[in-house]
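INFO  loader      accepted 1 record
INFO  loader      residues=349
INFO  predictor   begin
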Amino acid sequence: MLQRRLTTLLQKRQTAAGYMASAGKVGSEEKWAHAAMEYIYEKKHVNDGNKKRQHDVQLERRVAAAFDRYAAHGEAVFEARLARLNARMTEALEAVRALDRRAAALEAERRATAAAADDAAPASTLIEECVLLHTEQPPGSFQRPALAPPLAGYEPGYALDVPQLRSQQAEYPAVHRPTDDLQFRGGGGGATDDGGFAAAAEPDSYHQFPYVETYALEDLTAQYEKKLDGLHGALRLHMPLTGVEGEGWEAYVALQRKALRRQRLLIDLAQQGDFAERFERNEDGFRDAELARRGLLPLRVEGEEDGADAAAPTTRHKRKDGRKKAAYNNFEEHYHFAQVPAYEPFRVM
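INFO  predictor   done
INFO  writer      dumping C-alpha cells
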C-alpha cells in the first residue's frame, strides 16, 4: 500500500500549488509568497549578481569570447570583400587611364566630326567620372556586419566584481588563433602579421581544415617564426624589460622559438627519409650537430657552469690554526634568475 502511494506521488506532475502544499507552507499569505518566490527561483534562475556562481561567470566569458571571434571573422570577411571590390575598381580605372594615350587622336576626331563630339564625352571628363566613381561610398549591399541581437539574461559586465567570484583569474583568450590561417583560408579569414584575418588563394582548404597538407603546416610554421622574431624585436626596441622579468621574458621567447624549430624538424623527419635514417643512426654525432645547428639544445643560463663557486656562501670560515679562510666570492651572491626576488625591499618591518 505504501509503495503504491509513493509510486502515485512520484508519477504525479508537480505544480506550484502542489510544491507549496507538500512543503507545508500554506499557513499565511507571507509564507505562501515566500514559497512562491522559492519555487520561481528554483525553476528559473535569475541572473542576479549576488546569486551568480563561478560556473555562470565562466559561461558568460565563453559566450563573450565566442562572440568576439565571430565578430572578428565577420569583419575580416567584410574587409576582404571591400578589398576585392577596390581592386576591381582600380583595375577599371587603370584601363580608363590607358585611354589617355589616344586622347589627342580622339580630340582631333571630335573636332573633325561635330556629331561625334555631341555623343562622346571628352577623355578628361571620362577619367574624372571614373575617379569620382572610384571614391564613392560602396553600394548599400556592402554593409559592415551588425552586432548579433542581445541574448536574454546576458549582461557581459554585470556583477563580475563580486568578491566570491574572484576565485579564478580572469583570462581573455586570443581572438585569433594560430590555426585560423588554415581554418578560415577559403572564407577570407587567415591570420596576418598584424593580428587580423586575410583572404588566401585556396577556396576549398577550409572544408578539410583538421586534415591539411604538410606544405600548409610548413608555411604556418615559417609565418609564425617570422612573426615571433618581429614581435621580439619590436618589444626589445620599444618596451625593453630588465632584471628578473626581462630574463623570464627572454627565456619564454626562446622556448617559443624552440618549439617552432622543433615543429620544423618533425616535418623534415617525416618528409626526408634519408635525413630521418641519418638522424636515427646518429653516426659521428650527426644528431647532436643537427640539434645544435637548429638551436634545439637545452637552454643554458649564464653562470650555471661555475655554480659551485657562484652559489657558495660569502661567509668566512676559520681554519684550525685560527686564521680566517678566504671567501669563495668577495662580491654578492649569484642567483639563478628564478631565485632573485621580484622586487627590492624598500622598508624594513
